[in-house]
Amino acid sequence: MKKVITKRNIIVVLLVIAIYAALFFLVNMKVLNRHYRSLLAPVGINVILAVSLNLTVGFLGELNLGHGGFMSIGAYAGCLFTIYADLPLAIEFPLALMIGGMASAIFGILIGIPALRLQGDYLAIVTLAFGEIVRSILTNMSVTGGAGGLKGIGKSTNYTIVYIVAIMTILIISNLVKSRQGRAICSIRDNMVASESLGVNVIFHKLLAFVVAAFFAGMAGVLYGHNLGILKPDAFDFNKSIEILVMVVLGGMGNLTGSVIAAIVITLLPEILRGFSDYRMLVYAVVLITMMIWNANPRFAMFKNNVCLWLHRKRGNAR
User: Fold this and answer.
1) Fewest CB within a 10 Å sphere: which of 93, 236, 262, 264?
2) Cα–Cα distance for residue pair 171/303, rounded to 1 Å
3) Segments in 142-191 forming alpha helices (H)
4) pTM for the structure as a whole
């Protein structure tokens, strides 16, 4: 068992290094043009957002439409810190990431305690309202720059930092899901009444998933602000939360690998289709619908199950 786990971990580490080496080569050898190089950071940021939201929507089974709101709180908190702090970049930026994540996590606790007593559509409405309230407050505050946006943010984000944070997000959430707390979170999704009867603290585990997701959304917001150099409240409206939710749904509920792939595809697809001019959005919508139908196809689901079963048997033989 330990040999299998060690071998798998080595393969994962080598894969992570190989992907970064490929990105490093493509960027530094200028194989990618300037436009596609600029998309590397947004791709990583969307991966962080999709993976973190999957913890709430996919593994916990609760519909959260306020992820854009948590992202905005972290973005403004972290960017305001870097604007007014006079520290070396090597210290300032990691602190900004932690401040943005912690600010979102605190609001996740404040909103989660009352909201997570609700379920289904009611929870979705509350989280949606939360996101819109946050956007409205940010629009009317002078310290955030109001509707004109927060300017003067240093462009400290690069693809290396985003890659590191994205890998860290995937590893932490993956390990959380496989832990005792993660199994409790998944059991709540499957049957909350049965889980509670077996001694699972439903409120605590719901809040845990909600806060962890909010924390990483806040970190993604800090990366987003330091990538653009300006923050506008309208960037974090209802459509942003829906976009992140679409990534989770297309990738598969409770499937972290699927969330990563869907985030990459949905971020790059509009740019790839830019050459279609007036038909770009039509083609984009058709591709999304096709992906959704394919993902929901029973034959495709059977294929995925057979692949998982085959991998399980291979691991069993290796033991």
Assistant:
1) 264
2) 26
3) 159-178, 180-190
4) 0.87
